[in-house]
Amino acid sequence: MNPSPELIDPHWVRVNELVARMAQNRAAMARLHAERAEMCAEALALVEDRVAQREAAGTGRGQPSGDRIPLREVIGEIGAALRVSDQTVQHWLGDGAALVSAYSATLDALREGRIDERHASAIIDGGAPIVDDDVRGDYETRILEVAEHETAPLVRRYAEVLAARLQPDVVDERHGSAHERRRSRFYDLEPGLSRMQFDLPSTLGHAVYDRITQMATALEGAGGSEATEDAGAEADGDAEGEARDSRTRDQRRVDIFCDLMLCGAPTAHGEGDALAAIRGTVQVTIPFLTLAGLGDEPALLAEHGPIDSVTARRIAADAPEWERVLVHPHTGEPIAVDRYRPSAQQRRLVNARDQHCRWPGCRRRAERCDADHTIAYADGGPTCAKNLALLCRRHHVLKHASPWRVLQLGAGSLEFTSPTGRVYRNDAPPVVQFVSFREPWLIPPDPSDPAPF
Hints:
Distance between the termini: 36 Å
Helix content: 40-55%
Oligomer: single chain
Strand order of the largest sheet: 3-4-5
Strand content: 5-15%
Order of helices and strands: HHHHHHHHEEHHEHEEHEEHEEHEEE
Radius of gyration: 29 Å
Shape: extended
Number of domains: 4
Largest sheet: 3 strands, antiparallel
């Protein structure tokens, strides 16, 4: 439901009208894509008729792979008329045939503008391993419920997981086949630039990329330029005017990768730097008055006991962050912990719950996001899971610098309200999917449900 124009700030009326037109345009394009899918299915029916004609005439018989000339004839004609490649036409034909013959509900959703072409393609690709018609019907029903509310990349991820849950034997076989196809390739691009490409198991690929990304990020903290994904980004000199590392994070990834491959370690970046540093961590509890130099109650070193106040204050001065612990006035039992930055345990919890940036449509990984206070810390918002959500830096800044509003609904669900008054609900992705019960995103959250910590 679109908000009434008179209820919108005049500054946002034009944005509201533009968004409404774009939504109508998206629905119209989806209807056209549905029509194209039906025409592609019709084209394959013409191919079958042509094959039958050639067989009746005795043409094309005896070919090991069957008579493929009629298919090439149709693909060539369509590609020439629409000025697209044969590969593009083949993709259209395959998706069109799948939608008409196996995914009729998805085709209806596409025709009605409830999903777009990318959603439909994700559903088809995710269900490719499923061979049982009943299982495929169950899969389509479940994944459509997600597709109508989520982005296409997220639908593709859910589709792969759901297909694996519904028919694990086929998916295992498919993944095993993919493992056998691992390979490496090397070829030159332009003068002075070459490309080395590896096809490897997904778990190893993600692990390798994450490792070199962590190393590249560590170099930023050791004096390199700020993190950026934009090619050509530059860093300013440090406070003393000395030259700093001006490489982008992508360039650091490549350089570290070459070091690891040629030397077994990133030796070109020196020894004993942030890549190999291990810092000891201690937990010291300091009463506030002692910290301020106004009291003499002892500070406590965890697993040791009291330490002198001078040492405790020096540790506090060098600590990157503090926690405020509220204790019971009689028993001394900690009853609340308050801090601006979440603890490692809280961050792990929020990462596990959110998995990626929670802004509608954003898929930036949890490790590259900030833990944002939904109610700002400066406004009294606590540092707890019920008031934290992952936002990438781009959307974190947008939230605080614009009229966008975010509300925690409970159970990890967020409600985003745009400056035009539109409301977008974003549910935390389930870590484990149970296909025999209702999906978590369909269960209304209970606002009274306490946070899981």
